[in-house]
Amino acid sequence: MLNQILHIGLDDTDSKDGMCTTYIGAVVVDKLKEVGIKLIDFPYLIRLNPNWILKTRGNCAIVIRVQATDEQIPIIKQITLETVEKLAELHHETTNPGVVFYQAKEIPEKLKIFSKKVIQDVVTLEEAEKLAREIGAEIHKFKLGRGIIGALAAIGETLKHDKTFELIAYRTPNNWGTKRRIDEKSVFKMNELTFPETFDNLDPTTGEIRITPHTPCPVLYGIRSEKPIVAQKAHNLVKVFEPIERFVIYKTNQGTDEHLREAKVTGIKPFWSVIVKGTVSGKPRVITGGHVIFKMRDETGEIDCAAYEPTRKFRIVVKKLTVGDVIRAYGGVKPKPELPLTINLEKIEILKLNPILKKANPICPKCNKRTKSAGKNKGYVCKRCKQKFPKEAAKLEEIPREIERGLFEVPPRARRHLAKPIVRVSFPKRAY
Ligand code: ATP
């Protein structure tokens, strides 16, 4: 009888030189299916704290949830552990895989809370081990086994509030590390036919395709979407000139803003990602490297905000902010020794534009011409009819602002996996 629900969490299997935890997840899924194991949901690809320093690339972990008989459980565990052992970059110093098996019908509240903390904050390996003991989860540590943190966090993520999907197609091993052979025109066509139900396929500012990574990992491409069926349709539209070994559709917290929390300036901690409402208190300035920095304050304090060079055109908006503008800043806060805490902007919402006033000479009512200064403290004079005006006749005039209120985001090339693209905010919620 299929009376057991087993959650299988995986993390920390890859290195900067290769592999990808999503690939190992896909291989495990296929191997389990081959022996007749039933998944109860899509496998999940869970993005964890994007500001975490020990991540390899995108800080992701995988969970596969299966329904099985008591007899199948040891087979599932064996398949998973053997696959991780075989494929993980164990020779790499910084690769410390963790696998967690958790048999439970419901995810306990404390595991959900832990998961949120790993996505939004920092936890220790000891915390993860203690929790595993408390809830009766079985942990398998390879080397330092740091991956059990992400593996447990992935199990605890139920994606009840928001979710997206990503279809990931993988290359055959002989092609890993070589240039990806993909028909770019077909990606444009796919985007035309499926956007906005697929998103982040292209970077509108540079015209480059965004579905292929630039790392030597097994991923050929990944298509992000609102619904699995649309991801599948998009996948069928993309043409490639190399074999696809396998593909998988992951359910994910990508594009959901799950990493962000509302905060007041003085409460902000390094490694957090925050949403802060406040007022621009220091004029934007461009620093070496083309980064734009400005100060904002709320009732508790002042903090720097930065639009770094890779955010390209987003910096144009940021540069046009002025002191007194009311904004909501969204972004991550990384610890940078000797530098003030800085919000690394992902999005900015301009709520109120402060009028910029300039003192203007009065207009002569008879000639409808702007008057000239009549000399220091001598008021104004009309050049044409010579009529004089006192210095109090000068008016403060509003200079048109070159930006508008609204929500602005960094381009896809500079976007965090977790950041919610504006297209997901502005389109009405679809029925899933
Ligand atoms: P990839 O996305 O390519 O699989 P990665 O970027 O996910 O790689 P890992 O190699 O998994 O990076 O390394 C991240 C390590 O940090 C893992 O061991 C994970 O368990 C741990 N970790 C992730 N988030 C946190 C966090 N918020 N606090 C403490 N440890 C974390």
Structural class: alpha+beta
Helix content: 10-25%
- Text of the CATH class of the largest domain: Alpha Beta
Low-confidence stretches: 428-432
Number of domains: 4
Annotated CATH architecture of the largest domain: 2-Layer Sandwich
How many helices does DSSP assign? 9
Give the total of beta strands: 24
**Range of strand content:** 25-35%
Bound molecules: adenosine-5'-triphosphate
Overall residue-averaged pLDDT value: 94
Biggest sheet layout: 10 strands, mixed
Describe this protein's structure.
With 432 residues, the chain is α+β, with helices and mostly antiparallel strands. It folds into four domains: 3-156, Alpha-Beta Plaits, CATH 3.30.70; 164-252, Alpha-Beta Complex (Glycinamide Ribonucleotide Synthetase, Chain A, domain 4), CATH 3.90.600; 260-353 and 402-415, Beta Barrel (OB fold (Dihydrolipoamide Acetyltransferase, E2P)); 356-399. 22% of the residues lie in helices and 31% in strands. It has helices spanning 21-34, 72-87, 109-120, 125-135, 147-156, 184-194, 228-237, 314-319, 422-426; strands at 4-11, 38-39, 44-47, 60-68, 98-103, 138-141, 164-171, 198-199, 219-225, 244-252, 260-262, 273-287, 291-298, 301-307, 326-332, 342-352, 356-360, 363-364, 369-370, 372-373, 380-381, 388-389, 395-399, 406-409. The strands form five sheets. Strands 1, 2, 3, 4, 5, 6, 7, 8, 9 and 10 form a ten-stranded mixed beta sheet that branches. A five-stranded mixed barrel has the order 12-13-14-16-15. Strand 21 and strand 22 (388-389) form a beta hairpin. The structure holds adenosine-5'-triphosphate.
